[in-house]
From TrEMBL:
Residues 1-32 form the signal peptide. Residues 407-438 are annotated as: Disordered. This is Variant surface glycoprotein 1125.1745. Residues 407-426 have a biased composition (Basic and acidic residues). GO terms for biological process: symbiont-mediated evasion of host immune response.
Length: 438
């Protein structure tokens, strides 16, 4: 202070100017910082960022189940179709053929769901990853700002003072940038992103900065090279979730506006396009991927499509249309059919699954063919070849039947024609005799 004393130096006017400039610079140096962020509010945002990253696990889980249904249906349909071709009688062929149709439908249903769900899931995962990353990076800047030195306090536990133990990014609860694997989830962390909205953020606007302190450059706004922002116009950072209204000294603030994020059963009650609304929709989108409509393992799916009650419903239209059964006799006749094929009058699915594996079909071996159980053909990946052979043999047998039937029909028709002519001739002669007698 002696340098700024006009009394001691003797050059009052010159030194007063120097003193004024010094105080001006000191004042602006202190005003290059403004309000700090509340540690507990930053931790809430970290939890949101981490929970949002869980979207990938939800999508993987839900899509994986549909893919399992598709794979199970394909494997089951292959076996059932081959069994229908290789069956020794029409009844067995009819039962397994109908079950094959049902299995193929399970596969079609899963494929149709996947066609819609996969593109949507990819968009949701990309959006949540981008938002989570952007939010985490802003927090990382704030955290690293205060990690060095004693006078930079952008994240503080209480106004003007850092926590006794300054928290790392992991301790703040933020997600890691890179991951090696994803845990499969049914839904996000309900304590963060729940069925009713963002539990950590509420559904209103929240101020996430302290007031009246000058410890953080990140909220300072004025037309100075030393200020973070060149003015006092509000800016949005961290995927647009944090809104900072910069100002000099202790007049700045930062807020998170969660208005419109109230939800019911993971669906927003008020649809909108705010950043948090979009994040909520992206994070919960995969939850709404439909559950499988059929079993997701081959064994369970075979049991499902060979269930007696399902088979009776599926089988009924064909024999009904052919006049082989009536509405009144359908239930009895179809049960008799299933009893015959299964070889038992109860637990049809169990016995039909067993029979399915034991039906034999031909496979290629050393330029020849040999019979093999369907289950063993499946294990050796020979089902496709066996199906081709079985189909060819069915075609050959059908062709022989048609040729034979045609010859028989021609002979039969010729006999019928001769008999009709003879009968007609007899009748004519009888009439003539009657006329002569008359």
């Amino acid at each position: 202070m002696q340098r700024c004393s006009a009394v001691k130096v003797g050059h009052w006017r010159e030194n007063t100017t120097i003193c004024a400039l010094a105080f001006f610079l000191l004042a602006n140096g202190s005003e290059a910082t403004s309000n700090s962020f509340k540690e507990d509010e930053i931790m809430k945002l970290c939890r949101v960022a981490k929970a949002a990253r869980g979207t990938t696990g939800i999508a993987n889980n839900r899509l994986g189940k549909l893919l399992e249904q598709l794979q199970a249906a394909s494997a089951a349909a292959q076996k059932l179709s081959l069994a229908a071709l290789a069956a020794e009688n029409n009844a067995t062929a009819l039962v397994f053929g109908q079950a094959a149709v049902a299995a193929k439908q399970c596969g079609t249903d899963a494929l149709n769901e996947l066609k819609t769900a996969v593109p949507s899931a990819l968009i949701n995962v990309a959006n949540t990853a981008a938002a989570s990353g952007a939010l985490t990076e802003v927090i990382s800047i704030l955290q690293h700002n205060g990690d060095q030195g004693a006078n930079t306090k952008c994240i503080v536990e209480n106004q003007g003072s850092r926590a006794a133990s300054y928290k790392s990014m992991v301790q703040l609860g933020c997600p890691e940038i890179f991951i090696d694997q994803v845990a499969e989830l049914d839904k996000p962390d309900e304590n963060v992103i729940g069925p009713t909205g963002f539990k950590q953020l509420g559904t209103t606007e929240t101020t996430i900065t302290h007031s009246g302190c000058t410890d953080c450059i990140f909220t300072n706004g004025q037309d100075l090279a030393s200020a973070m922002w060149g003015g006092t116009t509000a800016v949005k950072v961290g995927a647009g979730i944090i809104q900072i209204t910069p100002h000099s000294a202790g007049s700045a603030n930062a807020k998170v506006n969660a208005a419109g994020t109230k939800a019911t059963a993971y669906k927003l009650e008020t649809d909108g396009s705010s950043q948090l609304q979009r994040l909520y929709k992206a994070a919960t989108g995969p939850i709404h991927i439909p559950e499988p409509t059929c079993a997701t393992t081959e064994d369970d799916l075979l049991t499902q499509v060979l269930d007696a009650s399902k088979l009776k419903v599926a089988l009924k239209p064909t024999p009904l249309a052919l006049g082989q059964i009536t509405d009144e006799t359908a239930d009895t006749k179809l049960k008799e059919l299933l009893d015959t094929v299964a070889g038992h009058d109860s637990n049809h699915a169990q016995h039909l699954v067993k029979l399915l594996g034991q039906i034999q079909a031909k496979q290629v071996k050393n330029k020849d063919t040999e019979l093999q159980d369907i289950n063993k053909l499946a294990t050796s990946n020979n089902l496709p070849t066996a199906a081709v052979i079985a189909a060819a043999e069915v075609k050959t047998a059908a062709a022989k039947k048609i040729t034979c039937t045609s010859t028989e029909e021609r002979v039969k028709n010729k006999k019928t024609e001769e008999e009709q002519n003879k009968e007609c001739s007899t009748k004519k002669n009888g009439v003539h005799r009657k006329l002569r007698m008359g």
